[in-house]
Design brief:
291 residues; alpha/beta; 2 domains; 9 strands; 21% strand; binds S-adenosylmethionine
Length: 291
Amino acid sequence: MRAEALQAWWHWAQGIIPAAERKSGLRELKQFLSAFTELSPLEIALRRFPPQIRLQLPLAELQERWQRRWQERVPLQYLIGTVHWHDLELVVTPAVLIPRPETEELLEVVAATVPPGQQRGHWLDLGTGSGAIAIGLTRLFPSALVHAVDCSPAALEVAQENIQKYALGDRLRCYLGSWFDPLAPLQGQVQGIVSNPPYIPTELVTTLQPEVRYHEPRLALDGGADGLQAIRQIVERAPAYLQPQGWLFMELMATQGQAVAALARATQAYGRVEILKDLSGHDRFLVAQNL
Ligand SMILES: C[S@@+](CC[C@H](N)C(=O)[O-])C[C@H]1O[C@@H](n2cnc3c(N)ncnc32)[C@H](O)[C@@H]1O
């Protein structure tokens, strides 16, 4: 494509960004163009294009995708097909939640909490989605065997693609099923569990921004009437799977900290139960250790 044509496309593309979202929309436009060309961020920022630009998609397709961003509020990451998360570039489709910065923090909490002697053995990622946590864990703990579970076959296909991309197939296995169901042989043997389960109360799902509400999988968001349906199951069933002193790390909604701590204490199975805050100062993570 010639530089003049791309300039004209840029002019059109920035023109359809809603006025109220101009700043973030322009940032997204740069990311969008960078994903489908070999232009450097500087060339895009200054709009100083070389005479010929190679597009990885036909122009009509590029145009249609950018239109869907604003007309249908499709998240940018689904339009590009990848997301940068932690130190990874993961494939994402509408079958999986787009991994969030809070979940990067969850992985940091795991890394900072688990002593080196326990960074091995069997680790679980329950509700793996794109495989983000499982892949992060497998790379973080080079002696661990990681088991990633999801009840969505379409999500597991995406996770498998990401696992292959990082060539982790020998230490990271995927299982189709509900929470612990496919993992019965691991009872009493698990060193740690990390999970970002669906935790939004059903009533709140319809109040979320359209990008989330209409495009991210309901199965990844909806935590039942009180938002705690999945969390409750995991907190209550985990002790049967964990070794003595085994770990449970879970991401929560900001308002759920006290309720989840109470759920964990009520099992009388954990010696340590803590709620940690995220970088914004909100209660966000459960850290529990089996007796
Ligand atoms: C909030 S998303 C988390 C995805 C990914 N771990 C992340 O942090 O980006 C929750 C995931 O749990 C899965 N899920 C929902 N119910 C489940 C169940 N009963 N058993 C296993 N996975 C389930 C969903 O399909 C979804 O992939």
